[in-house]
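Hi everyone,

Forwarding the result from last night's run.
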Amino acid sequence: MAAKKTKIKTSAGSRVFDVFNVIFMLAFAFVMIYPFWNQLVISLNEGSDTVKGGLSFWPRIFTLSNYSYIFQRSNIARGALISVLRAGVGTASCILCTGLLAYVTTIQHFAGRRFMRLVFVITMYFSGGLIPTYLLFTQIGLTETFTVYWLPSLFSAYYMILMASFMNGLPDSLAESARLDGASELKIYFRVIFPLCKPVIAAIAVMLAVTHWNSWFDIMLYNSSGKWDTLQVYLRKILLESEQAAKLLSDQRQYEAMKNLTTTSIRAAATMIVTIPIVCVYPFFQKYFVGGMTIGAVKG
C-alpha cells in the first residue's frame, strides 16, 4: 500500500503572512526593476514624444534614432575597445597582485605578515590627496598613457582583507603538505590556494570590472589629450554636444537630425550602452559573487 501523504496544516496567520510577503517582494522587485526598464523605454522612444511626460511601459513611438545618433560617431568603437582593455587588464592585474599580497599575509611562519597588513590597512584611511597624486603621476610619466588606468590599482587593501579572510578559512594542512613535498610558496599559491579561492576571486573580479568600466573622472584628470579616452568619456562628450545642439538649432541640417531627439532620450540610450554589457556578464558570476562575499565576511 502506498504511504499516505500527510498534509501540513497552516494557520490563517501564516497564510496571511505568505500573501503579504509575496505582495511585498513583488512591489520591491518592481521598484528595483522599473527605473532600468524606464530608461530602456525612453531610449527606444522618440525624443519629441518623451518630453510629453507620463509613465509608459512600452515605447509610444518606437525608434532607434537615439542609438543611431550615438553609433554614427567613428570614435565609439575605439572607446569601447579601450574600455574593454582597461576592464580586462585592470581586473586581472589587481587580482594577481592583491591575491599574492593576501596570501603573504596569511603565511603563519612569515614574521612580518601582521605589520604588512597594518601598513596596507592604513592606506584605506589616509592618502596623499588628489593634487600630490597628480603631481606624482606627472613626474613619473604615467599621464597620457594606458598604464595609468591599471598600475595605480595593482594593490587594494580592501580586496586584500576579503581574500585573506577567505584564505584563512582554508585548511592549513593543504599548504603544509605542499611544503613537505618541496613546493615553493609561489607554486603553493598558484597550484593549491588560487584554485580554491574561485568564489572570492570571482566576486572581486565583478566589482573590479564594474569599477574600471564605469570610471571616467581619472580619465579626465590624467588623459586630457583624449588619446586614451574610454567609452564613458565619449558618451559624456556626446551628451554635452546634444545639449549644445538643443540650444543652437540654427542650422537646417542639424535641426532635421535633432528635431526628434532630446538630451533625455540620448542620455537614456547612453545609459543602456554602458549598463547592458555589465548586466549580461553578471549572471555568469552571480553564484560566485554571493558565495565569495558571504564566506569572506563570516571568516573575517
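The CA atoms of residues 103 and 164 lie 6 Å apart.

Cheers,
N.
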